[in-house]
Amino acid sequence: MIPEIGNLALSFALAIALIQFILPLVGIYANRWRWILIAGPATMVQFFFVFIAFLSLSWSFYVDDFSVQFVALHSYRSLPVAYKIAATWGGHEGALLLWIFMLSFWSLAVALFSNQLPSMTRARVLSILGGLAVGFLSFILFTSNPFDRILPDFPLDGRDLNPLLQDPGMVIHPPMLYMGYVGFSVAFAFAITALMEGRIDSLWARWVRPWTLAAWIFLTAGVALGSWWAYYELGWGGWWFWDPVENASFMPWLIGTSLLHSLAATEKRGVFKAWTVLLAIAAFSFSLLGTFLVRSGVLTSVHAFANDPVRGTYILAFLGVVVGSSLTLFAARASSVSVSGWFDWLSKELLLLLNNLLLTVAAVMILIGTLFPIFAEAFDWGKISVGPPYFNLIFTTLMTPLVFLVGLGPMVNWRQYSMAQLGRKSLVAAIVALSIGLLVTFFETQHVAMDQFKIFLGVFLSVWLTSLALSDLLTKSRGKSTAKFRKLSASYYGMHLAHIGLAFTVLGVVLTSHLSIEKNLRVGVNQQVSVAGYQFKFEGVSDFNGSNFDGIKGKFIVTNDGDFVAELQPEKRRYHASGQWMTEAAIDPALSRDIYVALGEQLPHSQDWAVRIYVKPFVRCIWFGALLMALGGTLAMSDKRYRKKVAAKFSPKTKSSSNSENISNNSAA
Amino acid sequence: MMIQSKRLFLYLLPLALFVGLTLLLYSGLGKDPTELDSQLIGQKIPVFSKSLLFKPDAIITDKDIKGPALINIWGSWCPACYHEHPYFMELAKQKVVAIYGLNYKDGRAEALKFIQKLGNPYDQIIVDKNGRLGIDLGVYGAPETFVINHENRIVYRHVGVVNAQVWETLLKPRLTQQTKQLSDRE
Amino acid sequence: MSYLIPKRLFLFVLLIPLSFVTLSAFASIDVYSFKDPSQELRFAQLTEELRCPKCQNNNLADSNSPLAKDLKDIIYEKMLAGETDEEITHYLKQRYGDFVSYKPPVKPFTWLIWYGPFILLLLGAFGVYRYMGGRKISLSAQNKSAISNSSQSLIDQWDSEKGDPEQPNSSSVQQKKQENDEESPSQESNS
């Protein structure tokens, strides 16, 4: 019964979404107020039905309704409850439902928190979000219905969720990531609205900024969680693999970051309008592209869902319609956007432009690299792999100047700044960063020159960035707090926090990549091995049982010159339903280093075991930095200027009449 | 006006790039990205010296292989091999082509059991216990089937199950392919 | 409509590896003994750069497929025999193609990925240069070190002429008056 309710709710949601999409747009052109005003209520009702559908699927998982095919394939009777719920998004159909749920959630948020918008604008934004919902709802209903039954003979216990996904990471990583992906749909809808209305200005930018920030925060958290999860779960100790699906989440992040910065310039100075709109379209397009890559089977990936060319064709067609029409609208309208606002070569605007250039090129580079195998295939150049050696090299080359400039950006004024002043302000930071960088390199002599240079560069850049941020914070908060209108805003603090987060991530990446010690060793029971100054005593293995698995657990006592450091118990689990073996590494975390032990197999004809021991310095900094970035974003979002009522200036009446004239206004100016 | 059209071109650029991207993605749909092309097309089969499954003491070398022929890589551990075996039995009955079996990374006892149960379609069964010949052939998963021509040069490699359709459309037409045609294609 | 799914189709679906992550997280740990730490490092780096042809989501170092194990054994033997990384990679490429290395070769057809990003960067930089050149007005050039108040107000005046009066941003002077509290010091021009 419940699955049928879910199915019905999805159909209703589709019907409502159609209304939400079509009526307001038609209403605007036909001048029918009632049709326009339906956008808000329709959005709420659509959310209600999608929510019912989502609950129905989760409920089916909760009560082990294995007559539902999707539940049968992704759950298991003795699976812990939290994982049963999380299994709702453990496969293509459910993950798609999660995506739709997030989309309707964001639409609801726009409907609820956009009272300050002119009602035309609000109706347009909601209508566009409704259009996206129509696309995804028909996709799920016609190609991937999670409520399909498999009567009469269904499996009694289910086929189990992939053991890899039975992890707390599964409970939070996908929702976070999808919140981020889908969140860019709001910025997208605002961008299309702006193009339709022909009005792109700083007020528009101020509406879009908090939504973009919110999506960016979730995406930052989602990507970081994914990286952290891969690190402790996959058993290889890596934290980024440049897998196509990781890339699919990283490209929208880079474009989203770029968008945030260009929005700042558009809001404060009214510059880069067309470019900002293009980025808003691009950020969501990259999210859609990610969906396509995961679900179409065109690439070999760790995360690929079950592949189905029909689904791939549908998403590609949807992608083509959505992005194609947006870019057509862009080409038609953006060229008439006025160019205004003067700035000099050394100015915040120019630095933001360079930031955008580097971030966009990096995203395009990842796109080309990720899709190149398809490209080579299409032109019959044979199979080719584009992997970490390529991405690491090109990406770091592009990011080095970016991180350097990030330090300078906040100090430089809008419009114009003097080189001398910049030099004076950054001199101390340069000296501090140089000396710390050289010091670290000096003490770290076991590396070849090239690696030493990279370590130096990493340390230099993160210290440079941090000390510039700190000195800017100090001078500005101390010197100017007295002046009344120069009170520092929350978004200012948020920006610096996020930049310091970037410095931590850079430091973590560089130090972990070059200073990690990784050993595969043969260890006998009660034998002791020494890795990177730590002694590991292997005390043997024991059997143990979990709720839906059993396995063996090794025990290692880690000491440092006789001082106890940790007791680590790496596991190997065999899951009952699939018979699959899983490695669960044991980690002793600390900000300065992780100790990581994974248990391999017992070596033939002996009592010895193969074990993998890693000592990874500063690996936590990578995710700590991402956490700071997300916190910085949250702080910036709390800025009170985003909650200010500005609607008074634009009464709906004047707006509706002046919509069409706006373009001409702008271009005339 | 010049400036106007120049700007318009700039604003059309994203759309143009996107259309190209979509076409590219469309071309990738339905293809299997995991399937690898053989690197040995046009080359002679690798030099080897291996034992035979039924005569463990006898040695077979690459000189003993007489093309045109099929070389089928199989193992008792490979589920799809059970699936394709009946078709090889049928092919063998028709006696249209010589079929060599390469028993890849298998135990002798298990391999013999496999053959006793399902029949022997092979003219010879080469034993590649350590898998080195397989690696020289660029094998990455059983079953795989190589087509070699009269000069013992590799003409084609099929990855996956062989059935009537694969034989008729992919393997049979290539048996008569000349080496020269291959190098022309390059 | 769900009931109409043929049972055979369902069984077929069951056979496909289903959920999201198709690789096995059963880390492979192989123990080799090396003559010195630098050789060990070389082995680790090389096997990380090579892709397992069988389970294609893994590099050789992490893969637990039997083929990856065999290939690692071969690499180990070759390394002990004194072969260079290039020779070993060449050996594998001869058998499995360019696919086997995660590092794409630099050939004319891969110029797109190797040089493309930098060409794009140059084009972008050129675009920025043109953009700046096109909008530069003569009053900008002078007095970079100290912006006098008079030139500042000139800029403001110019801005407000340019802008749409409906837009609060277009004139920063207006904006300052209207929305004082949202000014962050970073956007102030004179200090």
Notes on the structure:
The complex is a heterotrimer of chains A (669), B (186) and C (191). Chain A has 20 helices and 10 strands. With 669 residues, chain A is an alpha+beta fold. Helix content of chain A is 63%, strand content 11%. In chain A, strands 2, 3, 4, 5, 6 and 7 form a 6-stranded antiparallel beta sheet that branches. In chain A, strands 1-10-9-8 form a 4-stranded antiparallel beta sheet, with helices on one face. In chain A, helix 8 packs across helix 11. In chain B, helix 3 links the parallel strand 4 and strand 5. The longest helix of chain B has 27 residues. Chain B is an alpha/beta fold and 186 residues long. Chain B is built from 6 helices and 7 strands. The N terminus and C terminus of chain C are likely disordered. At the A-C interface, helix 4, helix 9, helix 10, helix 13 and helix 14 of A face helix 1, helix 2, helix 5 and helix 6 of C.
- Work out the helix count of chain B: 6
For the secondary structure, the number of strands of chain C is 0
Mean pLDDT across every amino acid position of chain C: 66
Number of helices of chain C: 7
Spell out the blueprint of helices and strands.
The complex is a heterotrimer of chains A (669), B (186) and C (191).
Chain A: H1 2-30, H2 33-37, H3 39-62, H4 69-74, H5 81-86, H6 92-112, H7 119-143, H8 168-197, H9 202-233, H10 244-269, H11 273-296, H12 309-334, H13 348-378, H14 388-408, H15 419-443, H16 449-480, H17 490-515, E1 517-523, E2 528-531, E3 534-545, E4 549-560, E5 563-568, E6 571-575, E7 581-584, E8 586-588, E9 593-602, E10 609-617, H18 620-637, H19 652-658, H20 661-668
Antiparallel strand pairs in A: 1-10, 2-3, 3-4, 4-5, 4-6, 6-7, 8-9, 9-10
Helix pairs in contact in A: 1-3, 1-7, 3-6, 6-7, 6-8, 7-8, 7-12, 8-9, 8-11, 9-10, 9-18, 10-11, 10-13, 11-12, 13-14, 14-16, 15-16, 16-17, 17-18
Chain B: H1 2-28, E1 49-52, E2 59-61, E3 69-74, H2 79-94, E4 98-104, H3 108-118, E5 124-128, H4 132-136, E6 144-148, E7 154-159, H5 164-175, H6 179-185
Chain C: H1 7-15, H2 37-49, H3 66-80, H4 85-96, H5 111-135, H6 149-162, H7 172-178
Quick description:
The complex is a heterotrimer of chains A (669), B (186) and C (191). By secondary structure, chain A is an alpha+beta fold.
